[in-house]
Amino acid sequence: MLDAILSAQCARGLTAAPGPSAIPAGLYELFLENVVLPCRIGVFDYERDAPQRVRIDLLLQVRQDGAQFSDDIGDVLSYDDLLSGLKRILMDEHTNLVEMLAEKIARMCLAHEQVQSARVSVAKLDIYDGVAVPGIRLERTRDQMPGQSPPASRRPLAMADRRI
Questions:
Q1: In angstroms, rounded to a whole number, what is the distance separating the alpha carbons of residues 156 and 76?
Q2: How far is CA 116 from CA 2, 77, 84, 110, 130, in A?
Q3: How many CA atoms lie within 13 A of 26 on its CB side?
Q4: Bridge partners, residue 120, by sequence
Q5: 3-state secondary structure of 29
Q6: Residue ranges per domain, the chain?
Q7: Is the CATH number of domain 20-161 3.30.1130.10?
Q8: Whole-model pTM?
Q9: Which residues form a coiled coil (predicted)?
Q10: What pLDDT shows up at residue 155?
Q11: What is the pLDDT of residue 162?
């Protein structure tokens, strides 16, 4: 019976979570999930008139400096910095496509020098009357963004300067 369930899951693309070997040595995964915020997004006139809710999920591979973690917030990538960056992007100008929004978010994540890769998922929650939730998932790596240097207004905030 278990074999039949696992075979059905594999056929639908649902497999067990990868084991410890899926994360390369010297990296750790940081996630920020189910971030639901208003966003001005869409190509239709009614989508330009009012913000709609989007759900964003981030999964980042982050370089760990040193063999072990310290208990100092300054030694890790802050969830607060990521959430502040998301809010800045979503409050920015109107974006037509979820693909472009996901790309902007991936670039913001990779602007943090210790982030090696970013998997970004963006879903539009307020269309199709709850029957379906459309969205996109993409992954970008540091080597795909050569020379990417964000403008000063988009650089990660220092802990002391952060305001949410």
A1: 13
A2: 37, 12, 20, 7, 35
A3: 5
A4: 58, 138
A5: strand
A6: 20-161
A7: yes
A8: 0.74
A9: none
A10: 42
A11: 38
